[in-house]
Amino acid sequence: MTWVLANIEQIWDLTLDHIMLSVPPILLGFLLAVPIGWVAHRYRLSRGVLLTVCGLLYTIPSLALIVAMPTVLGTQILNPANLIVTLTIYAVALMVRTATDAFDAVSGDVTQSATAVGFGAWRRFWQVQLPLAGPVLLAGVRVVSTSTVSLVTLGALVGMSGLGYFFTNGYQRNFATEILVGIVGTILIAVVFDVLLVLAGRMLLPWARVDAAARRNARTARTKAVAA
Amino acid sequence: MIRFDAVSKRFPDGTLAVENFSLTIPSRTTTVLVGSSGSGKTTLLRMINRMVDPTSGSIRIDDDDISTLEPVKLRRSIGYVMQNSGLLPHRTVADNIATVPLLSGVKRAQARAEALTLMDTVGLDRSLADRYPSQLSGGQQQRVGVARGLAIDPNILLMDEPFGAVDPLVRSELQQELLRIQKDLAKTIVFVTHDIDEAFLLGDQVVLLRTGGQIAQVGTPAEILANPADDFVDTFIGADRGRRALRIEEVSGRQVVIDGTGRLAGILKDGAPT
């Protein structure tokens, strides 16, 4: 505890760095995965290829990818872009399948009827398909967010900032408290992100909870009817 | 007036849904397309708002060949009500009803005010305006569907088995409601169903279809009942089972009507119905 108090400033700085490194991959991953997922949903032929490629991306060892990035991007070894691009690739790999499932999950009846009352393709996407894919997309982003926050710690192995520094430094100094602070800090960031995402979901998708409650009620009513 | 002229539709998988179909649907009346599954009735309905384009033949609304009209604009000018309501689950009742006006650029406040008026028209309590569709009963959802169909005051209203998924009691309520609305508004309604009783109840003109959109008979319900064109029609309307064959018997000095199964259907009264 004394160590924590003595180093509170460094802990705070590294936490901020950690957050700054986590947010871009989550956002970029989402923004890239949604259109790719939509294409995979819309065009049957592209589906197999896209989903397989994204699945394979995830199997590339993360450390190898970070180390290779400067060569691929032509950046300096300590440029945060190396880590951000790497983690974006993982975010996309994780998110594309969920995004595809999210669009698949939108009821065909609803899209049909939207077309029938005069939504053009563009408005139908933005006003019907995307919001209705929202709950599943949100579930996907929550996984990506947690996974990204934890992967940022890997950056410490190649000299990047973030709470991962406490892992490498604590390991070298054989100092458990420091490692523990790194772990707890990372978990806290992940939890805060998750809570923020859930709150954002409640604000943006107010109907989703009502829908879920209605389905639950229908189910209990059915179960009761069967039991009676 | 809607006119089908030698319309055929072959789907990409090779099925011939409709073959050489011609029909005139008069304005401001209800025309019911009735047939079992595979009769092409829904395909025919969807051709009117270009959800499906015919392989050959032409469809005219008044004098416009609809293949020359822009599909999205055409659809916004035609009311559409489908089975399971097809409401947008992420929008409130009022917003659902206002869907088409909002798409066409009507101001939000005005669209909402009109939506509330339409809720009165279809017999929905205004307190439901801010609920989501999943919070309503099946019957209420269908009413919202009808209100949405009426929202831009279209000349034409297409209804694809709109009451097929609700229980019989609610269905009969909704049917009566539709008759009442139609009496006031006099739209050109094209209604699809597989239920012959519903067809006879709602239709000014009934079109009986067999497989592939072949017309078995067209006429008013009375004409079809009085004069079934063939055995197919006979079977379809249930005349062959004697269900519609009523006879009069005298019981304790009064004339009662007995149906084909020997059950009491009602009492015969003199004079025209009031």
From TrEMBL, chain A:
Gene3D superfamilies: MetI-like. This is Osmoprotectant transport system permease protein. It is a multi-pass membrane protein. One of its GO terms (biological process) is glycine betaine transport. It comes from the Bacteria. Belongs to the binding-protein-dependent transport system permease family. The keyword Chloroplast does not apply. It is found in: Cell membrane; Membrane. Residues 15-200 form the ABC transmembrane type-1 domain. Keywords: Membrane, Transmembrane, Transmembrane helix, Transport. It holds the Pfam family BPD_transp_1. One of its GO terms (cellular component) is plasma membrane. The keyword Membrane applies. The chain crosses the membrane at residues 20-41, 48-71, 77-96, 148-167, 179-199.
TrEMBL record, chain B:
This is ABC-type quaternary amine transporter. Residues 2-237 form the ABC transporter domain. PANTHER family: OSMOPROTECTANT IMPORT ATP-BINDING PROTEIN OSMV. GO terms for molecular function: ABC-type quaternary ammonium compound transporting activity; ATP binding; ATP hydrolysis activity. The keyword DNA-binding does not apply. Keywords: ATP-binding, Nucleotide-binding, Transport. Gene3D superfamilies: P-loop containing nucleotide triphosphate hydrolases (3.40.50.300). Belongs to the ABC transporter superfamily. Its EC number is 7.6.2.9.
